[in-house]
Amino acid sequence: MSLDSSRSGNSKRSFSNSISSNDYIKKKKKKKTTPNQKTLGAAWGSKSNSRKPAFSDFASYMTEKNRKLHNQFEAQASTSSLTLSASLFSGVSIFVDGFTIPSNQELRSYMLKYGGRFENYFSRHRVTHIICSNLPDSKVKNLRAFSAGLPVVKPTWILDSVAANRLLSWVPYQLDQLANNQPKLSAFFTLKSSKMSEDAYTNDLCQVVSDIEDSSMRVGRSDSEDRHSSKVGDMSELSGQISTESDDTIPENTNAIMMEELTSVREHAGGSNAATKDERNVKGELEPAHQAPSTSFSTPCSDELNVKEYPNSSGTKPSKQCHSTLADPNFVENYFKSSRLHFIGTWRNRYRKRFPTLSTGFNNESANNSASDISHNSVIIHVDMDCFFVSVVIRNHPELLGQPVAVCHSNNSNGTAEISSANYPARSHGIRAGMFVRDAKALCPHLVIFPYNFEAYEEVADQFYSILHQRCKKVQAVSCDEAFLDATDSEVEDPELLASSIREEIYKTTGCTASAGIAGNMLMARIATRTAKPNGQYHITTEKVEDHLCQLPINALPGIGYVLQEKLKKQNVHTCGQLRMISKASLQKDYGMKTGEMLWIYSRGIDNRLVGGFQESKSVGADVNWGVRFKDIKDCEHFLINLCKEVSLRLQGCGVQGRTFTLKIKKRRKNADEPAKFMGCGDCENLSHSVTIPVATDNVEILQRIVKQLLGCFYIDVKEIRGIGLHVSRLESAEASKQGTVKYTLKSWLTSGYASIENQKYPMGHDKQNRDSTCSRACRDLPGSSVEMDNKIPNNQASTNPISTPPPLCNLDVEVIRNLPPEVFSELNEIYGGKLIDYIANSKSTSENSSPSGNSFLEQAIKKEEELSYSKPVPQNNPLSKNKAKQNEAGTGEGEAVPYSVCGPYFKLPAHRRAEICSNVVVAPPLENHSLSVGIEISENFPGSSYHDNLWAGNPPNWVGKFKVSSCLMLKKLAEMYYKSGLTSTLSLVLHQIISEFYELNLAQQFSDETVNIMCELLRQYIKVKIERDIEEIYICFRLLKRFAAKSQFFLQVYNSVCPYLQATVDDNYGGTLLL
DNA sequence: ATCCTCCCCTAC
DNA sequence: TAAGGTAGGGGAGGAT
Ligand SMILES: Nc1ccn([C@H]2C[C@H](O)[C@@H](COP(=O)(O)OP(=O)(O)OP(=O)(O)O)O2)c(=O)n1
Ligand SMILES: [Mg+2]
Ligand SMILES: [Mg+2]
């Protein structure tokens, strides 16, 4: 993707999509000179091109296989020993209907292993659950009829139950089409299925047209005759003969029509061309037969042509303009539903979920044989679906074979919608993925446009991978339409035979063709696939590597994109052969060590990577760089709240939590033209700020607070924003935290603490004083030209001085406390200096809050520790309920700061008592109390004088006026910063702002104690205001102050004076001290 | 030297 | 109208 200016800084080159389209055209012209890809024969035997027979073949094959497996099942079941989990599925007897992910064999083995039954044949008496993946509607209706009320459940129910080690409710796993209310996570993880009716139609049609395909595609079987030659099988070549030789002789009746999903076609009464009419006819024949049983599925939601609608997605805003953040309050969600790039970008995560065992890494086992010379005998196959998005949506339109077709949101001949995929006839006109549809139409006016069908892509991808996993043990997923197989140890001797049979099965199962490249390593296999396409396969044997690469343009090498290609072009390198002329040392000098190495070995066809599964993901994020327009800050904040929700859901969906949060903003570049693309981001500066917190979280409210602060760092006019992204990194497994393995203890919070706010692109305040060079000077003044605040506390301090404080009262679970045995209670009460009894008395009796929502990350950290060390609930017999409304929550949303559990105090119990109650507790030395008492002193009796004023009241806050007229330059500066930072009463932003002017201040200047006191009071009052609701803000402020303290006597004194109070207050509220 | 952070680049 | 996302690799340059 090339946005108008994804490039940073002052790069001159800023290209729009239309320009890059031109790039494509040029490249294309060059490519056109490459020899026509001829094929030597058709692949897969004429008998199996009809889809229906293909399916039944597949089914009977599976049945046979299952029979065998059933025998094995019985055998194994009788001998397998019972384990703890062996009764997981006791009483559950599943019948697997149709194609599933994972395969029915896998499901069967799960059932066997965990005490369930697996039925090969449906029987109402024996089967308790029908397991089924999403199906076409027609099938669903049948299924519904015959299931007779039995639950029809998706296979993930089994997987998740196994993962959870308990039998989960099947309700949330009901088949989408059968469930009234499918619980939804986000558009990200569940593909909604509102277009099912169209799907059903598509499948039905498929069976009808299969005859046509059969007769029109006289494909012969001949996959043996081209061993070691080149291409095997090419149906489109044949169909090319049938239709037309030239791309320019496309029948007129398809001119500029939009091949809509057929349900939509029906709406267009005028159906003026043959193809449309035919379809309508076909549909008319089929529909009644299959849709009779139930009408509830042919929902009206498919009326809208290109906009996907999902039943449960806030069914409020059905029509209207959903094309920008201005018009659509639910923009984030709706946008992602329609985004192709979102679809392919998130596919990997869905795959992970569907193939949990198969997608994990397995390349280590063979690491030994490969270290030095991997090439020696490896056989790698690369399989890639041909023009995937197009193939899927036109598989039931034989009349379009040989005609140029593309998938795109729009058919507007001067629109700026992007082509997602173009079939091969279209490519011969120069049409490419990523082009604007208007450019594509200019190249080929009779280009046929189809809309997206994401469900179908998902389904085909599942079938694709199911086949691959079935045929090969080592599969590495590249994308939804593409994978590597390590066929070195395959049972099938001949890799070409393996490849062709896999391709055949893919075609029979999906109705779409795939191509395959075979070679000794992944690089060459991938390169071979290019030659093989479309619908062919190609084997680059070791001897042929040299020849193949010699003339190959360098951008055919994976890893060489636009930029690298241009750089190499400047060195007059255009082909791999030329690239080889350059020494490795030279390449490494010019392009870096790894890149240089990569260029050197790739140009020689060397690639030592191993086929392997996925590794753990390192970051999770969401970007929206289209349709983003805000009229005011409210718009922007609303959008960010939704973006946080999205990211939080994704984190949870991945089972991870993160510590570093980065907010990216695309800001319209000054004097930039209107974006070439409708609602696009155009020419932008890319800005970003990030913050790292000490404990990983996936909590949406924490995210929202962090993001709000990050947004403040930009000092940006929201009208200038053209794109926003939120990314989370430094991921940790959420599972691990729940299981309480070491990671998340209060101790770790306080000792590994590290927070930073960084302006990555520009130093602080850049936007305000845009091209003010003094600003960058100011920032260079700070280490790393950022305000990153490092935690310098040595690690050993953590271990020698573990946290010794009890958790704050507010974190205690009132219910649990009430239920403590009296003697334990009084011990605890002592620990809390008698406050516990009051606390309990004042607490609401309800404290149901299982999720950590609304808690600061500190609270969460504490909670985690508690969870890990406190296990058993205590019997109920406590006399201590007074049930007064909790008072201490003024101004806070209800339900926040709700108590959790009671473990913390046990830290202070004597060892033997601790052992009694909780055997696995961190040993903690006694609490040192001095800071606490200091804190109380300060907060309780701060002297009168002017400090008494509420410095944070008013607008602007009172302190601003006071500081403005102060004789102290530093205070004046702060007041000034208040205005500069956009009238924010968020202190961290004001402090942040002052950084950019730090250099101006005479840091050694004189200041009075009085000045220090005023500043201290400001901070104390701030702490008071924020401590309950926003400890993050306090944390960040004090990290900043600490930074300042290193440079300024003034701030040093302030910092030293206030810190004790800060720590006491934190201790009081949270039972710990902040590590600054 | 080695690590870490902030980006850019690439691929689908 | 239109849905320009996502995540990993790695280079440059600073911190250690
Ligand atoms: N810029 C792009 C690139 C790809 N895709 C989507 C549509 C493609 O169909 C799918 C797979 O990408 P491929 O690179 O495999 O391209 P195709 O499968 O379309 O064509 P080919 O036959 O070259 O594989 O990803 C997209 O939407 N936009
Ligand atoms: Mg493809
Ligand atoms: Mg692909």
UniProtKB/TrEMBL annotation:
Span of domain BRCT: 84-175
Q: Which SMART domains match?
A: BRCT (SM00292)
UniProt lists the gene as LOC100778409
The UniProt entry's sequence similarity note says: Belongs to the DNA polymerase type-Y family.
Q: Do you know which PANTHER family this protein is assigned to?
A: DNA REPAIR PROTEIN REV1
Q: Which residue stretches does the UniProt record annotate as biased composition, category Low complexity?
A: 1-22
Residues bound to Mg(2+): D384, D481, E482
What top-level class of enzyme does the UniProt entry assign? transferase
Report the subcellular localization.
Nucleus
Q: Which cofactor does it need?
A: Mg(2+)
Q: What is this protein called?
A: DNA repair protein REV1
Q: Where is the composition biased (Polar residues)?
A: 292-301, 311-323, 793-803
> Which GO molecular function terms does the record list?
damaged DNA binding; DNA-directed DNA polymerase activity; metal ion binding
Q: What does this protein do, in the record's words?
A: Deoxycytidyl transferase involved in DNA repair. Transfers a dCMP residue from dCTP to the 3'-end of a DNA primer in a template-dependent reaction. May assist in the first step in the bypass of abasic lesions by the insertion of a nucleotide opposite the lesion. Required for normal induction of mutations by physical and chemical agents.
Region of interest called Disordered, as start-end residue ranges on this chain:
1-51, 216-251, 267-323, 786-805, 870-895
EC number per UniProt: 2.7.7.-
Q: Which GO terms describe its cellular component?
A: nucleus
Q: Which UniProt keywords apply?
A: DNA damage, DNA repair, DNA synthesis, DNA-binding, Magnesium, Metal-binding, Nucleotidyltransferase, Nucleus, Transferase
The entry's free-text remark on the cofactor is: Binds 2 magnesium ions.
